[in-house]
Amino acid sequence: MKLIEILNEMTNHPFPNKKQLTIKNSDGNDVGVECEYAKTPEEKMTGVLGMSSMCENCGILFDEISPTYYHMQGVKFPLDMVFCDDKGTILDIITAQPDGDNVYPPSGSHFNIEVNGGFCDNNNINKGDVVYIS
Q1: Is 46 helix (H, G, I), strand (E, B) or coil?
Q2: What is the average per-residue pLDDT within 21-44?
Q3: CATH number, domain at 80?
Q4: What are the b/e assignments for 66-94, b being 16+ CB within 10 Å?
Q5: What's the predicted TM-score (pTM) here?
Q6: Edge-first strand listing for the sheet containing 18-24
Q7: Cα–Cα distance between 134 and 129 in angstroms, integer?
Q8: CB 34 within 8 A of CB 6
Q9: Number of domains in the chain
Q10: Residue 44's pLDDT is what?
C-alpha cells in the first residue's frame, strides 16, 4: 500500500484543535473561517488527506511553516492556499488541483490557510488583505 493511502486511512478529522480566523477582504468586509488547527507533526503531514470536502467557510491552519512544499498527491478537491507573513498580511494565494504539482510557499511565509478552491475569488480575498487569528 502506498504511503498516501495509509495516511488517508489513518487521518482523523476533525483535528482536535480549532482556530477562528477573520479575513479583512479587499472590500473591507470581514470573512470568517472556522479552521482545524494542524498543530502536531502528524496533522501537518496529513492536512486534508482523508477528507472528501470541507464546508463552505471551513479550512485548515498551518503555522510555523518551513521552507519546504505542500503536496497535493491524494487530495480529493481543489484548494486555495493562502500564505501569510507574521503580521497576517496575505503574501500569495495559490489554487492547487487534486493530484497536482507541489506548492511552494513564498519567501517570508509564516502561516498557511487551506480553504476550498475558489473561496478567495468568491469572497474577494486578495494579496495584501489581512488575516486575524483568534
Answers
A1: helix
A2: 92
A3: 2.60.120.1140
A4: eeeebbbebbeeebbbbbbbeebebbbbb
A5: 0.86
A6: 90-96, 79-84, 111-116, 58-63, 30-38, 18-24, 130-133
A7: 17
A8: no
A9: 1
A10: 77
Which residues are CB-neighbours of 66 under 8 A, at least 6 positions away?
none
The count of C-alpha atoms lying within 13 angstroms of the C-alpha of 85, restricted to the half-sphere facing its C-beta, is 10
- Using a 10 angstrom Cβ sphere, with 0-12 exposed, 13-18 middle and 19 or more buried, the burial of residue 2 is exposed
Cell of 103: 506548492
Measured CA to CA, the distance from residue 68 to residue 53 in angstroms comes to 25
pLDDT top residue among 71 and 131: 131
Q: What backbone torsions phi and psi does residue 41 show, to the nearest 5 degrees?
A: -55, -35
Three cell numbers written together for 80: 486555495
Mean pLDDT of 31-49: 84
Question: What DSSP character marks residue 11?
Answer: -
Residue 106: CA count within 13 A, CB half-sphere: 13
